[in-house]
Amino acid sequence: MSPMSPRLLRPIASGFNPKSISGLAAWWDAADTSTVTTVSGAVSQWNDKSGLARNVLQSTANNRPAYSSTQNGMNVLTFDGSNDRLATSSMFSLGTGGYTVFAVASNAGGFQVLFEGNALNPYMSILASGSTGFRHYDGSAEVDTPSGVYTVDKFFVLEYVISSSSRLILVDGTQQASGAGTSRSAGLQTIGATTSGGFFWNGKIGEMLVYSGAVDSSKRATARSYLGKKWGVTVA
User: Fold this and answer.
1) How far is CA 99 from each of CA 19, 137, 164, 188, rounded to the nearest angstrom?
2) What is the pLDDT of residues 90-133, one digit of tens each?
3) What is the 3-state secondary structure (H, E, C) of 202-216?
4) Phi and psi, residue 13, nearest 5°
5) Which of 71, 112, 124, 153 sits most deeply, having the most CB atoms within 10 A of its CB?
6) What is the pTM of this model?
7) Which residues lie closer than 8 Å to 42 by C-beta, 6 or more apart?
């Protein structure tokens, strides 16, 4: 009998790929070391895996996040809460049909911005505070009333979903806040601070997925499960 072909013995590829959900606008994955450029252990560039080349950069050495900590055996970016941030060369638009952002991160406490666009009504911005949880910022004030808070220094999977009819914030699959939707344009430019520089993130970021349009709940559950298993975060 002839030996079995090595091709047949090879494991079948399985698992979720963020590109399988339509509308992927940016994908930053710290676990993929080939996408991260470091200088003396600090991140000068984090490349986008979506195929759209929406890389985020930091030319100032003192403002670069570190790339030395690990979560679930993988590398993450660590932002110091005082001046670290990364930004695209120019803000990219997500149109008027809503958007969805997933982020795997942790926070050491405080009142900080995880990511932000600019004042395109609404701001694409998430503020975190250990006492009030996560809030959306609309360009003039924080809105939404969170029903829970996050655990300081514990990794979480955040979902931020806006459509024409509703706005949702979920943490580890549990809805934390909601609000009115919008049909106005929005975009994203900065990770780890405001676009003008301020409210710097004090914690770690492992992965971010950005979609143009409001991803439906079943597809979000698939993406959430993927991120939770990958990064060792228990999600609903």
Assistant:
1) 15, 15, 10, 10
2) 888 888 888 899 999 998 877 788 888 765 544 556 666 666 67
3) EEEEEEEEEEECCCC
4) -65, 135
5) 124
6) 0.88
7) 61, 64, 65, 66, 67
